[in-house]
Write a structure and sequence with these properties.
This protein is α+β, with helices and mostly antiparallel strands. It contains five helices and three strands. The longest helix has 27 residues, at about 80-110.
């Protein structure tokens, strides 16, 4: 695999790791503080088995870190720069929706 293709694959893998509604909810939830698995199950209304899989994907991608305290595992954001990516995506979507609103207003005036 060429170096350029490898770079594209690494970028795509990172984007894939966040490309799920539950993973985005987890990131948003952990934005300000760490949380235990039990707390996230309760607050995010995600079954523990599914939550564990999503947490594993995010941890393998290097986005989350974890620490264990007795039998409880706590997760936190490892690199807050992920929120730069998410803010940029939000801005792109806002522009897209504004453009769509403009087109709809134009069509309703026809």
């Amino acid at each position: 695999m060429s170096e350029k293709k490898l770079v594209f694959k690494v970028k795509a893998d990172l984007l894939k790791s966040i490309a799920h509604p539950s993973r985005l909810a987890i990131l948003e939830y952990l934005k300000e503080q760490e949380a235990s698995v039990g707390e996230m199950v309760s607050q995010l209304e995600i079954e523990q088995s599914g939550l564990s899989k999503h947490l594993s994907v995010l941890k393998q991608a290097g986005i989350l870190s974890s620490r264990q305290e007795k039998v409880t595992v706590f997760y936190s954001i490892r690199d807050k720069d992920i929120f730069i990516v998410l803010r940029t995506i939000s801005e792109i979507l806002r522009k897209k929706f504004r453009e769509g609103e403009h087109v709809l207003k134009h069509l309703s005036n026809s």
